Known about the structure:
This protein is mainly alpha-helical and 436 residues long. It has helices at residues 9-29, 32-43, 47-75, 77-95, 101-118, 120-130, 135-142, 144-148, 152-184, 207-211, 232-236, 239-268, 273-297, 303-321, 332-344, 346-358, 363-392, 396-405, 409-415. It contains 19 helices and no strands.
Amino acid sequence: MLKLGKIFYGWWIVLVSAVLNFLIGGTFYYGFTIFFNPIRGSFGWTAAATSVAFIFQRLELGLLAPVAGLLVDRVGPRKMMLCGWTVIGIGFFLMSRITSLWSFYGSFILLSMGVSFGTFVVMNTAVANWFYRKRSRALTLVYVGYGASGMLVPLIGWLVRQFQWRTTLVIVSIGLWVISIPLCTVIRHRPQPYGQRPDGEAGEASGSEARRPSSNGVRGQDPPPAVIQFTPRAAARTRAFWLLAFTFFFQQLATSAVMVHIVPFLESAKVPTAAAAFTVTGMTLCSLMGRFGFGFLGDFVDKRYLVATALALQSIGVFTFSFVTADRMWLIAPFLLLYAPGYGGPIPLRPAMQADYFGTDSFGTIMGLMTVITMIGGLVSPVFVGWMFDTMGTYTFAWRLIGFLVIPAIPLILLARPPVSASVSPSCPRSQREIQ
Length: 436
């Protein structure tokens, strides 16, 4: 029955996912900005050349997201995450041994492969399957891990100062293996094979119900009547799919650039490195206001209006960031209070909207296809901002332009109404694959 005490097992999956997000956020998504300048300085690379690694990262994530989505729908998230987190540790270790720009790129690609198969799409799929009415709240708690992960960034910075970047990468790789691999064994794909229902509702599924195919071909999967299960092909034919994809394409222009260049920018503005590292921590902690606030409201308020509000805050926040200097460090505070909640708010809302619009039968595959589009924004913006800095010697104009480029996402999300019809998934024999 997979119950630990009286707590619904889905909440254990949420807890494990949050912890894993804390680890990957603190070491990779936010923490890697600490390694940016030390690695670049060791080899004398330009900011643009170093940022190319993030092109490979985003390209890898985008190309592998559909593969990861297809695999998680077929083999389940537990096996995917065990494999992914093993590769993540290998990627960090190999990066500690780099001797050239191309070996840096190679280790970054391997690391990104592990992230593709062990985090975003895979975790979202598991949690979306275990929750329906409380889905937005559950995903909000999952992404609290990312929000809190900024607390690891000062620790990463201290390790780099004490032991240099190569040794720190080795410490990170071993630490991730020790913690993540046991946690991945907790993950399960769907509740029905274990005699449970989404949200832990009363009247658990019986053994015969768990074995019986439902009308959409998934064993024991009995979604509420209002939820239409879209096939990936049917979803891609809807207007809503493309509006959502391009909404988050424009959002990624800002989030990826800030994630990569926040510390290099502040250091170029003569802000002390320690203060820059704590700014990353402040950004992630302040993003919790958006994750909690917008995420919990998502179960009660139209998610489109919440995302639009968050995008407006994010745009204003990036524009404010462009004015930060050593003499105007106080502007970091309004940047954090505007950008961080605006950045954090859409994170739990995006997968929740996808599940609401297209169902969960092919959740991973649909999310993977959508990620191919959204990743393009994250692909180009870090290198563009790095190139602008190399060319102009300042980040100011780049930040202002990036802030304006977020604005088109607002009308797009407001136009993204739920689709009204779909081709229902054909029956497929999943009976041997459900318990993952």
